[in-house]
Amino acid sequence: MNVSRKTALVTGAGSGIGYEIAKLLKEQGNTVIIAGRNAEKITKAGETLDVTAIACDVTKEADIEALVTKISAEFPELSVLVNNAGVANLYKVGENANAYQKAKQEFEVNYFGPVLLTEKLLPVLKKQAEAAIVNITSNVTFHPLVVLPTYSDTKAALHSHTVALRHTLAKDTNIKVYEVMPSLVNTEATKDMGGENGMHPSVVAQATLYGIQNDQFEIYVGDTEAQRKAYFSDPIAAIQSFNNGL
Q1: CA–CA gap between residue 30 and residue 13 (Å, rounded)
Q2: CATH code, 7-233
Q3: N or C, fewer C-beta in 10 Å, the chain?
Q4: Span 172-197, pLDDT tens digits
């Protein structure tokens, strides 16, 4: 799919991967809208990138409804949706871990938000000659990282949903569904989990656009492809290696 002179919406774009994807899309001649929960942060990012910025908390149905209403009215040509907003809690499951509350927060942002936003925007995307939905997941879609247990759950769930959505929409629409699975990325969100050892988010952005342009529906970035192959070769050994020392 050609990603130029399109209109794109990127969530969670105040910084990190979302910001870099929005920046690259803008550089490729696209009209870009960015959305984020923190109004001050997303406004500043919009000013820096010279794109439209909209405050939206994807855990709030009213915010999503307002965003969809604005997009439908002001950007009816929207053809690219990038679901990037995410949150992660660094901890281990066990007694007094408060896993339920952590999982609930993560699923609201990482899974339920993208599912709802995507469904609400399908009528707009279906009107375009070609369109794309891009879900940012992770290398933990295949197996969990034990210090990100419920975050891993959310990404596994979004991976499954993405596959179902891709197969469903391919039957009677022009919407293509892509999934981007990066390994460790150096962002604000990963600073407490060794993020400084990860790749720059611009690497993920570049891989994302390359993958879309070449119709790579599952886009592996960094160590993910090797980790995936290891998992399907020997799941038990791969999980042990992935969680070595944790």
Answers
A1: 15
A2: 3.40.50.720
A3: C
A4: 999 999 999 999 998 777 767 666 77
